[in-house]
Design brief:
D-amino Acid Aminotransferase, Chain A, domain 1, D-amino Acid Aminotransferase, Chain A, domain 2, single chain, globular, 3-stranded antiparallel beta sheet, 10-stranded mixed beta sheet, alpha+beta, 2 domains
Length: 267
């Protein structure tokens, strides 16, 4: 299990369907940080390897089935120093019930957080099967997303990161030191939230914090912004949609301002 986790490291970027990806430098930086934590050597020529792998994936890509699908590209580095990339189109987890709305409301279920050790937890690593298994449980329970629980607190979501607006107007997200993946999506909207007058804090999303929260969101590169209204059949939040709408707008602004056109370089 640990050996498989250390076999590779990856990151997944938004892709425009052509030659551009969002938040490129942040993804490369996180990929390098995670590779070091997993004891995977970081190539001295990582930049050209990454760009050439992405360009090959773009060349081999297929067209989307529908306009609602989101383009994604996964960049992967193995412990042998091989860099590869693959594209895919992701259908929305759920469409907004109101076509004029920018928010998508979903139901969540709580699951034990997958755990390896302090070094591996929170990395995008090679042993991703527990997350695939979690998707099957979600489907069986009739939900759209999972909240991962560790020590009686939410530390992560499946393919996303939780963001909670509490009754004091503070936005909370899990501290990566507790095992959460350091979210690029959350990091890129934090400056906008602060500009809007919303304080942002890292911490433990405990049961009591959830109970008094105004709104609970799940935010991720592929999922976008999801508004969690129910957790295992219980209502979450006060029913308002303003925070979810704001975060959806900020998320798309951050994406649109960060497109990076990939160009080939000599390795």
């Amino acid at each position: 299990m640990i050996e498989q986790a250390r076999a590779s490291v990856f990151t997944t970027m938004r892709w425009d369907g052509k030659y551009s990806v969002s938040h490129y430098s942040k993804h490369i930086e996180r990929l390098e940080n995670h590779s070091l934590r997993l004891e995977i050597p970081w190539p001295t020529n990582a930049e050209p390897l990454a760009k050439n792998a992405l360009l090959q994936a773009f060349k081999d890509s297929t067209s989307p089935v529908s306009q609602e699908e989101v383009g994604l590209v996964r960049l992967r580095l193995t412990s042998m120093g091989e860099m590869s990339a693959s594209t895919r189109w992701k259908a929305p987890i759920k469409l907004a019930t109101d076509k004029s709305s920018t928010t998508v409301q979903v139901a969540a279920t709580a699951l034990p957080a997958p755990q390896w050790n302090e070094t591996i937890d929170g990395c995008k690593h090679g042993d991703w099967q527990p997350y695939h298994d979690a998707k099957k449980v979600i489907d069986e329970r009739g939900c759209e997303i999972a909240l991962f629980i560790k020590d009686d607190a939410v530390i992560d979501c499946l393919s996303a990161t939780p963001l909670l607006l509490d009754d004091d107007g503070v936005a909370w997200y899990p501290d990566p030191t507790n095992g959460a993946v350091d979210s690029i999506s959350i990091a890129t909207i934090i400056p906008f939230l602060i500009e809007c007058g919303i304080p942002v804090s890292q911490g433990r999303l405990t049961r009591s914090l959830l109970a008094r929260g105004r709104a609970l969101l799940a935010i991720g590169t592929g999922t976008g912004v999801l508004h969690i209204t129910h957790l295992d059949g219980q209502e979450i939040g006060d029913g308002s949609t303003e925070f979810a709408t704001l975060c959806a707008e900020l998320f798309h602004t951050a994406i649109n301002e960060s497109w990076f056109k990939v160009k080939g370089v000599n390795s």
